[in-house]
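Practice problem: predict the structure.
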Amino acid sequence: MSKLRFNVVEQAFHKKPVEVVSPEKRPSEYFGKYVFNREKMFKYLPSKVYAKLVDVIDNGANLDRSIADEVAKGMKKWAMELGVTHYTHWFQPLTEGTAEKHDAFVEHDGKGGMLEEFSGKLLVQQEADGSSFPNGGVRNTFEARGYSAWDPSSPVFVVDDTLCIPTIFIAYTGESLDYKAPLLKALRAVNKAAVDVCHYFNTDVKKVVAYLGWEQEYFLVDEGLYAARPDLLLTGRTLMGHEASKNQQLEDHYFGAIPPRVAAFMKDLEIQALELGIPVKTRHNEVAPNQFELAPIYEECNLAVDHNMLIMSLMRKIARNHGFRVLLHEKPFKGINGSGKHNNWSLGTDTGILLMAPGKTSEENLRFITFVVNTLMAVYRHNGLLKASIMSATNAHRLGAHEAPPAIISSFLGTQLSKVLDHMEDSSTNELASLGSKQSMRLDIPQIPELLIDNTDRNRTSPFAFTGNRFEFRAVGSEANCASAMIALNTAVAEQLTLFKKEVDTLIEQGEPKISALIHVIRKYIKACKPIRFDGNGYSEEWQQEAARRGLDCETSCPVIFDNYLKPETIQMFESTNVMNRKELKARNEVKWDTYTKKIQIEARVLGDLVMNHIVPVAIEYQSKLVDNVYKMKSIFPEEEAKKLSAENVAIIKRIAEHTAFIKEKVDAMVEARKVANKITEEREKAIAYHDNIEPMLEEIRYHIDKLELIVDDQMWTLPKYRELLFIR
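Answer:
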């Protein structure tokens, strides 16, 4: 192998795990150490201020600005005791990442010196440049003003020397320029709609909370190898690279022993995550080599989203301390599984009831069926929107790749729940079929205890599966902001529950008994949403044909899928729930199309550069050596014998010439196609041009590069190969 490649591979092979110093306490004792949680609030705030702030957090009361100075004073005291010198408004713009501007706790004291200062005004809001972040035309370049505003429902936390204040980000004209603002509105909408429906069963319910449990998948690669791959460095994925002879076909990596270097990284990550109040619980090897998963205990949705954004940032930082780079791209390596971020979603009440869990009485089970069926109706009516909410240029590589949910939204319910719904659909009475409980299984092994078997099996090919007391939205991408999917899902469910209540109330007003009215509408919904239910193999081509017949959205073009955000029924849904208006939706789609175009554009440019600076020169150099060898053979052996002995080399020379000629031709064509696409002024049409005309060329060029990788002398190939990226620790 080349000298550079040899050196980085050698360094990666000989790296030892970084020693992690664990706190001399149990996790429960240092959990939330760097979070201004209720314990810290109670300690550092006056009792009246504490009570008002808790009312804001728990009950959605309006934030009284009169308490802001006292809150800021308490926060500053707590933070400075931890060595904090700066503060920042931490928000989530439409970049899929987070943003922050650090300011010091300093002001002039009027005597030529400085004093530490942090006021309620600085806590509550700040100004940022609303035109410099993606805004879809909401802000012109010369209209720069935007505001970040404190979200008290997500605790303030400390990272290094900075107090981080979770905030929303809006334009001067009021439109949201982030993910948090519409998410908070969606959660408020589903809370109100769900409480109204809960009152059919229990009038004590005052609040319904949406819960989220994310499962973060990711890859780790050695930092030196990462730096030697410009495509990984600039795009997050390998634009070329032939499969290793051994990848995941033996299925020996999944749940396998965690390598020591990775275990050290995981331990360090968990300690720092727990200190920041992120309740991480599960870690394990995933299916693909060098792929892993991290998952927390479920939390309130808004906080869970913040914690996921924070954990991704934390992972990147800590990985470098251990000589790794984290890859969150959904498909960094061809030929092995990509990474997702399953979003486990459910609803719960302030009275302690999980609305997606079966109960013990017929009324409790009717409530359960009510919320499950309304969720199915929401998913059915807006299946295209839900797909659009998780679609991106990066996630498009993973969806439908026979390793992840297909690009068709359907819901798996399992045998027992399906039977219950089918019984309700066909029955002429108001009786519910038995939901049953966990069954037991005894094995013929004396020392193994009795096992409790869940009511439903799992279907890993289903994008939206019911898993016992929640729905698992499995199609979300690993580097995505969970808020995108959660905004769409919670808003759709809020709208659906509102429609449901309206229909039920109409029947009750007409004299029908409450239970009868509930079942009447539920039965109608079960029939209506039946096309969204599918318990079979979502990977099969038969399902794609069946889904189209059922009228589900089967579009596969990423830019076209985004159109779902601008359908009349989508705009009506968002506006009726007061989550987003037409202007905000149009602006966000402009951002989505522009982002898609730029990601493909960057990949095309990187691939073109690699072709001309690495691949073709190395291939030609090796080809020249073979040509030289052929001429030398002719000078040594008789003509016929030389021809026979050099036949294989001549064939290789020809294959190299064919591959390099195709690559050069396609790269030139790709450059010209980009020039044509770049002249298109409409963002949607430009994105479609990149999808239809340029993205396919990337795979065509890659095919021939990967063939050259198998032909060219390994000692001459400059880029680390899959066998080195995926298997060296």
